[in-house]
Amino acid sequence: MRVDLETLGKARTPISAEKPVIYIAHGFLSNAGHMTKLEGLLRSLLPNATIYRFGYDWKQSVLRSGAELADLIFKDGGEQWPLLLVGHSMGGLVSRVANVILSDPVSFASFVWTLSAFGYQDDINFLKSRDFGHKAKREVNGIVTLATPNSGAMLQGQVSSYAALIQWAVNQVISPRLPSVLDLTTDRLFRLLQHFATSTPVLSVAGSQMNRFTTGSGQIVRSAVKLGLNLTLPHDLVVEDVSVDLSKSILPNEVMHHGNAPYVHLRAYEDCTDVTHFNIHEKQVVAKYIADFASRC
């Protein structure tokens, strides 16, 4: 286990005795079923944990999905057990939104009236219907984001030119006007989150530092040339480490800039093999990071 996590405090032992309630949120173009392997890995390390795979409509806004997760947790109860939110890719952003709501539902409810200024006018009525203003705070003991575009997946300067390939593909098969795509390709979600503060410990995990595609010799690069795209692929094939790492965020965030949350960022490796955006949630080493993190929060 990397020493990075030592900054979060001493791990309780044995880790297998921990009894957290864990909600796992999937990412873009995905569903809860894709998180089955991660659930199994966590169950083997945390046999006393209660684990849910949270499913949501990836096409809707991250704000709405996060509100749905928070609403579910409020209804499920279980306040006597530590609560851990784990999100892969866009699911990490969903978890951050849920944490903001759970940590201070009254403040969030008072902010709903202003959401049209951020481009979320279509979500206002839904959020009002959740009645967060009458909910009691629910402590979140920790958040783990896996290959999450914490500063935006396709913002200029945040990722390499691989974003051009993603945007080309999105434009071919997915409407760029989808609420989720807007959250990933504009700064509206990040402008919203900077109005909040949190003290929830956060662990962000990025993929491998190097892989065979980053050299420019991979089939993806060769295929992209035919599309007129000159690519330099990011470390995990989709999101640059600089975007995953909240400490390098261009815009202020609720975790480090406005909040006082303990924060750790690290890369994942396993047996000298690549840990990519697409398999990071299926790696044993990542499950071990999450279990160790749970024992410190």
Indicate the CATH architecture. Answer: 3-Layer(aba) Sandwich
| Portion in beta strands | 5-15%
CATH superfamily membership, which one? Answer: Alpha/Beta hydrolase fold, catalytic domain
| CATH class identity | Alpha Beta
Name the strands of the widest sheet in spatial order. Answer: 2-1-3-4-5-6
Task: List low-confidence stretches.
Answer: 154-162, 212-218
Shape: globular
SS-based class: alpha/beta
Helix content: 25-40%
How many E-type strands?
Answer: 6
Radius of gyration: 18 Å
User: If you consult CATH, what is the topology?
Assistant: Rossmann fold
When the domains are counted, the total is 1
Instruction: Describe the largest sheet.
Output: 6 strands, parallel
Average pLDDT rating: 85
- For the record, give the distance between the C-alpha atoms at the N and C termini, rounded to a whole number: 16 Å
Describe this protein's structure.
The protein is an alpha/beta fold. It has one domain (3-151, 188-213, 241-294): Alpha/Beta hydrolase fold, catalytic domain (Rossmann fold). The protein contains eleven helices and six strands. It has helices at residues 36-45, 62-76, 90-103, 105-111, 124-129, 162-173, 179-185, 188-193, 219-226, 241-244, 284-294, and strands spanning 21-25, 50-54, 83-88, 142-146, 202-206, 263-267. A six-stranded parallel sheet has the order 2-1-3-4-5-6, with helices on both faces. Strand 1 (21-25), helix 1 and strand 2 (50-54) form a beta-alpha-beta unit. Helix 1 crosses helix 11. The longest helix is centred in the first third of the chain and has 15 residues, at 62-76. Residues 154-162 and 212-218 have low confidence and may be disordered.
